[in-house]
Write a structure and sequence with these properties.
Helices cover 15% and strands 35% of the residues. With 279 residues, the chain is α+β, with helices and mostly antiparallel strands. It has two domains: 71 residues, Single Sheet (N-terminal domain of TfIIb); 194 residues, Alpha-Beta Complex (Naphthalene 1,2-dioxygenase Alpha Subunit, Chain A, domain 1), CATH 3.90.380. The strands form four sheets. Strands 7, 8, 9, 10, 11, 12, 13 and 14 form an eight-stranded antiparallel β-sheet that branches. It has a three-stranded antiparallel β-sheet with strand order 1-6-5, with no helix packed on it. It is an enzyme of class 1 (oxidoreductase). Keywords: Dioxygenase, Oxidoreductase. GO terms for molecular function: dioxygenase activity. It comes from Paracoccus aurantius.
């Protein structure tokens, strides 16, 4: 069953900052919108005056150009003991789908995030499992393991880090990874992507961590540093849109999650920001 991209929820602002901020004009799927606070509540409208639906979740204001259903669940947002971190936003000159796909890529850690999320000679991507879970219509990658010199701000020394990746939304992805200070639990790092146009997006990272010691500013700075390292790679990828058809790019074993994501997008009829070969 296909999904209409206009009926999806998208992040457009950090909820905590909205009441004190003036109206913010931005784009969503190529349409100009305005985000503002009114009586301590967010209001989102098109510049033509149409009021759009609004939801506050996971530290952000979400809206839709259509008739959205439920937003995907993130129960970790309600779990006691976690620190919820609104990282801010980064504008990237790439397809919103490219931004999500890059987040799913494990193999680039040693080369782009050297001595932090990866290092040479630890470049091997171990075999892992990927599936499209039909019952929830999500892509999941499990049993992912990678050596990381500094897996998180709270990590002291290199560790073998376990990962799970989840794609519950065409432009959002959730990463579950080993929590250095809380063995047996997962730290959560989510990437919420606002599609401005087909080749431009605003990326809103968000985290739910077990970390009682790091200053909030350090947690934000660490995650922003990681994503800014990715931005230069993303902005130089060609084609700018994400190819959905087999044969347009050559995959490797490390690209299993990317392949499943592209297959899932194609199955759901998501073409905004995608490169599709004409029939």
């Amino acid at each position: 069953m296909s999904r209409d991209i206009r009926n999806e929820w998208f992040p457009v602002a950090i909820a905590a900052m909205l009441p004190a901020a003036p109206g913010r004009e931005t784009l969503l799927l190529g349409e100009a919108i305005r985000v503002r606070g009114e009586d301590d509540q967010p209001v989102v409208e098109t510049l033509g005056g149409r009021t759009l639906p609004v939801k506050i979740a996971y530290g952000h204001v979400w809206t839709s150009l259509g008739e959205p259903g439920d937003l995907f669940p993130l129960p970790e947002a309600e779990q006691p003991g976690r620190r919820l971190v609104d990282v801010g936003s980064v504008r990237v000159k790439c397809s919103p789908l490219r931004a999500v796909e890059n987040f799913l890529d494990i193999a680039h850690f040693p080369f782009v995030h050297t001595d932090i999320l990866g290092s040479e000679p630890h470049t091997e991507v171990y075999r892992y499992e990927v599936q499209i879970r039909d019952e929830v219509d999500e892509v999941w990658a499990t049993k992912v393991r990678f050596y990381q010199p500094q897996a998180a701000k709270s990590a002291e020394g290199g560790i073998e880090t376990d990962y799970m990746y989840r794609v519950p939304h065409p432009t959002c992805s959730v990463l579950y990874k080993t929590s250095p200070p809380m063995p047996g639990e997962w730290d959560v790092i989510a990437l919420f992507v606002q599609p401005l146009t087909e080749e431009l997006c605003e990326v809103w990272p968000w985290m739910a961590l077990f970390d009682d010691t790091s200053p909030m500013a350090d947690l934000i700075q660490f995650q922003q540093m990681i994503f800014l390292q990715d931005r230069s790679i993303l902005e130089n990828q060609l084609p700018r849109k994400l190819p959905l058809d087999p044969g347009m790019e050559t995959p490797t074993r490390a690209d299993m999650t990317s392949i499943a994501y592209r297959r899932w997008l194609k199955r759901n009829g998501i073409t905004f920001g995608a490169q599709v070969v004409a029939a």
